[in-house]
Each structure stands twice: as structure tokens, then as C-alpha cells.
Amino acid sequence: MIVWVKEHLYLLYSGVLLVFIVNYFISNVYMEYAIGVAAIVLLILSYPGASTLFRTLGIIFSVSGVVFYSYSGLPFYKIPTLMTSTMPLLAFLTVLPFMTSVVHAGRFDRRINQLSNVNVNDLGRLYPRSSFTAYMLTLFINLSALSISQEVLKSNLRAVKKRVRDSFISNATLRAFACAQAWSPMEIIVAITIDSIGINFFVILPWLFLCSVIVICGDWLFGRKKFKSVPYNVGKSGAKTLKTKKILFDILKLLSALMVFLVVVVMMGNYFHLNFILSVTLVLIPFTFIWALLLKRLRTFWIIGWRTWKANTNKLQNFMVLFLSLALFSNSLSETTFSQLVQRPFLAFTDKPLVILIFIQLLFLFMGIVGIHAIVTMGVLVEVLQPLSGIISPLSMGIVLISGAMATATVGPYGVTVTMTSMNTLQNPYRISVRNMPFAIFYCGIGLIIGGLLL
Q: What are the protein's UniProt keywords (predicted)?
């Protein structure tokens, strides 16, 4: 029975989340309570399969949530009503694999990766090409872009010394990932921020894109200078036969598809009065279906999509434990006066908003280094910073929150991205973190400058 449940978690997860979305529109009180009870069951079932870090966080948030709830004096039978506020995030995570699947089905990832080897004589010239490739793939296939880009680079850089190869791969791919995710509608940090501060995505998009471009271009200049003395000969023979115009056209098609997707998401959200996360969740599957149909790759899309969706949804234990326990914690905290105590350090600097923005950036970096996921830090901060919404510009707040959170993707030794890179390249995760710390500080600094100018 236990084995069956473990292999079919995707049915339990998707079933409960589907009922939650349906109830979002019909607002049935009894169904809402039943979903809350189901959330508690999912939390318990997911706990054994979660990693040690997320189990620890789940226990801390759950126990703290129960303590805060007890202090509030509310009856315990109402606890299930506090468990569903983060379900839109979980539903969002379950549909993301379909975007990855349509990109794989259209073979965009393979063709874009070929671009990096064209007319390259040294690693200095290869660096921005490799970074750009990872950047473009990240916009659509998220974490899969890291694995694909790193495997390609490992193969192409076999003849390069391991120390140089490791530095090149971890810098080019992780930094590109962090920059691309800053304005990607498929990034959960971006979605949480937009819904939390209540800002239109198209209002903050140009500034997030500007921050992303400044940071990635600065890194390209640094990378080109750092690696220009290392010769590169692998892959040159095949570069002449590549159809560069075809690859560039594919990139243009990807960007066009992304913009159409954004427009549809915002239009649907405005028309039906939905938050950004739910809008993306509802639009993504039909959008990718139509895209695959236009590409004439529908059958391949469904084969890849079903396999990818099932595998990814079956491995959502970490996020189930994190978000369901975080919902209990944050909602219980808001029912007590303890939230006011946490807010006091921020409220003490209401006349110095720039100090608050700096503190936010430093908090993200510190929490990332000690192993706390940026989503956890974000979840706590959005609750604490709510009273400041009338003091600090939501635009500034959003830019600083997103840039600070995404910078930790390059320096968190226990984070998914650094851990994945460590495993793929056989590097010490702390070495990767130390190597990327100057970049993370630079990233936070650019976000702080842009946010500060918009106060």
C-alpha cells in the first residue's frame, strides 16, 4: 500500500489541487474545509519523501504554526482553513513541466545549444555564447536548462583543465540561470512577488529585464576577460555546417511565444480578476497544447509531457511539505501580535526606505548561505513587509525582492541549483558559492540601485 501511494502521489496531488482550483471559482465553504483537511493529509504523506532540509523546515513551520494558532485563542477545528492559501503555488508547480515538454518536443533546446560553438577560438569568446544559451533555455525549461547546458559544456571542454572547466561551467550556467529567472513568468519567486505586492506584471517587467540585462552583460565582460587566455578548439570543425540563421530564427520564435504567453496571462487575469499565479497555471497547459499543434509536434509533446509531468509531480514532496507548513505558519502568525514584533525592525526605518531595501538584500544572501531557500525567506518577508506597502514603492520593493532572491541561486551551497551543479561537475558546493559571491553581491547591488532610483 505504501509503495502504491509513493508511485501514485501525482494522482493525489493533482486531484486535490484540481478540486482547489474548481472551488476557487464556486467558493463552497464545505469543499474549502475538505480541501484543508486533504492538505493536512498530503503534508503527512509527503513528509517521508522530502529531503532532510525540507523536513526540518516543515517541522519548524508546522510546530510554530500550531503554537501561534494556540496563542491566538481560535478553535482547533478551524486549522484546515489555514492550510490552503499556498495551494495556487503548488498548482503552478505541477503545470510547469508542460512548458519544458513543448520546448523539448520542438527541439529548440538542441538547436540553441549548437549556437555556442560558432566561430569560437578561446574560452573568452565561448563564455558569453554559453551563458546566452543557458539564459535562453532557462526562460522556458527552468532547472532542466542547467542540466542540459552543463552536460554540453562538460563534453565540449573535456580537454580543458578541470579547475578551469569547473569554474567556467559553474559561472556561465548558474549566473545565466539567476539572471534569466528574474523576469521569467515561469519562476515561482517572480509569481509570489507580483501577487504579494499587488503589481501588474507588465509594470515591473521592463525594470526586471533591465536589471537582468545589466547584470548578465557585466558578467559576460568579466567572463570574456577571465577566460580569453584559454584556447578552445573542440567543435570548431562542425561549426561551419551550422545554419546560424535558422537557430537565430528559432530564438526569435521562442521569444515571440513567450511574449504571446505573457499577454494572454495578463489579459486572462484582468478579465477574470485572477492573481498572476493562478492565471499562469490556467493558461499554461492550453497554450503549450496549441503551440505544439502549430509546431506539428503534438504527439511528441504529449508523450514527453505526460512522462515529464508524472515524474515531476511525483517528486513534489519537498514543496508540498514547505508550502503547506508555510501556509499554516504565516496564517497563524497573522492572527497573533507576534507579527508586529517581527515588523518592528523594519518599521523603525520607515523614514529611511533605502536602509530597508539594503537589509532585504543582505537577509536573502545570509539566509541563502546558511541553507534557507529563497522561497522561505520570501514567504516570511512578504508577511512582514505588508505594513510598508504605503511607504515604499511596490515597484522598488518588487525589484529588490526578486533580485535578492535570484542572486542566492548562485551562492546557496544547499540550494537546488548549486547542489545540481556540484553533482554534475563533481565540485565542492562551497567552492561554487565562494566563486559566485562577487557576482551575487553585484546582482544585489544593481537591483538595489534600480529599486532605490524608483523609490
A: Membrane, Transmembrane, Transmembrane helix
C-alpha pair distances (Å), 263 with each of 180, 205, 259, 396: 19, 12, 6, 23
CB 334 within 8 A of CB 89: no
| Residue position matching grid coordinates 501580535 | 337
415 part of a folded domain: yes
The domain containing residue 140 runs over which residues? Answer: 93-453
Residue 39 falls within a domain, yes or no?
Answer: no
- Give every CB contact of residue 427 below 8 A, 6+ residues apart in sequence: 166, 170, 421
CA–chain centroid gap for 175, Å, is 14
Backbone angles phi, psi at 40, to 5 degrees: -65, -40
Query: Closest by alpha carbon to 225, among 122, 303, 327?
Result: 122
Q: Among candidates 57, 382, 443, which has minimal Cα distance to 191?
A: 382
pLDDT digit string, tens, across residues 114-124? 766 666 788 99
Asked if 362 contacts 403 with a C-beta cutoff of 8 angstroms, the reply is no
Write down how long the chain is: 455
Non-local CB neighbours of 129 within 8 Å, separated by 6+ positions: 115, 116, 117, 118, 120
Determine the pLDDT at residue 194: 93
Torsion angle of alpha carbons 329, 10, 188, 97, nearest 10°? 180
What is the structure's pLDDT at 178? 96
Q: Which of 279, 258, 317, 260 is nearest to 99 (CA)?
A: 258
In contact, 144 and 100? CB cutoff 8 Å? yes
Instruction: End-to-end CA distance of the chain: give it in Å, rounded.
Output: 56
In a domain, 151, yes or no: yes
Q: Are the beta carbons of 444 and 358 closer than 8 angstroms? A: no
Q: What is the number of domains present in the chain?
A: 1
pTM: 0.88
Stretches where the chain sits below pLDDT 70 are 1-5, 115-119, 234-244
Using CA atoms, how far apart are residues 451 and 455, in angstroms rounded to an integer?
6
Q: Give the 3-state secondary structure of residue 122.
A: strand
Is 248 within a domain? yes
